Amino acid sequence: MAEAQEPGRYHTLVIHTDGASRGNPGESGIGIVMYDGQGSVVKEFCRFIGTTTNNVAEYSALIEALRAAHGLGAEEVAVRSDSELMVKQILGELKVRHDGLQPLFVEARRLFLRFRQWRIEYVPREQNRRADELANLSIDRQHK
């Protein structure tokens, strides 16, 4: 029999993140969608983050998502992103060569340590559609 889950607390979260930048650098936003273990949306949100690069936006989305997941009491997270560069950097397959990304990389790795278990994987943009929509929506809202 499954354990009753405390409201607002999730054992495992599957998280889709995306950062968007219109120009590089340009106006940027983040989009995040969190799913519980059964595939139901737990939380989704977006935020305009000002003028920055696409890679900074991708890392910013990851950091915000990990903070939110910890706030929801997640013990395990599975992050999915369409930023192959960021995923490979987090996994240690590529070095972080840009000085501006180094502190974001360190912060993301530190936040992952809050979880008993974690993983991050690259997914094609088509499999990250909602997070992409949210990241772009955050930029669009700046012009209304």
Helix content: 25-40%
| Physical arrangement of strands within the biggest beta sheet | 3-2-1-4-5
For the biggest sheet, the summary is: 5 strands, mixed
CATH topology: Nucleotidyltransferase, domain 5
Low-confidence stretches: 1-6
**Helices and strands, in N-to-C order?**
EEEHEHHEH
Number of helices: 4
Sum up the overall morphology in one term.
globular
Annotated CATH homologous superfamily: Ribonuclease H-like superfamily/Ribonuclease H
| CATH classification class | Alpha Beta
Helix/strand structural class: alpha/beta
Average pLDDT value?
93
Highlighted features:
single chain; alpha/beta; five-stranded mixed β-sheet; 5 strands; 33% helix
List the helices and strands and how they pair.
Elements: E1 12-23, E2 26-35, E3 41-52, H1 54-71, E4 76-81, H2 84-90, H3 102-112, E5 117-122, H4 129-140
Helix pairs in contact: 1-3
Q: How would you portray this structure in words?
A:
- The protein is an alpha/beta fold and 144 residues long.
- The chain has one domain (12-138): Nucleotidyltransferase, domain 5, CATH 3.30.420.10.
- The protein is 33% helix and 32% strand.
- The chain contains four helices and five strands.
- It has a five-stranded mixed beta sheet with strand order 3-2-1-4-5.
- Helix 1 packs parallel to helix 3 (102-112).
- The chain is globular and about 35 Å long.
- The N and C termini lie far apart (50 Å).
- The model is unreliable at 1-6 (pLDDT under 50).
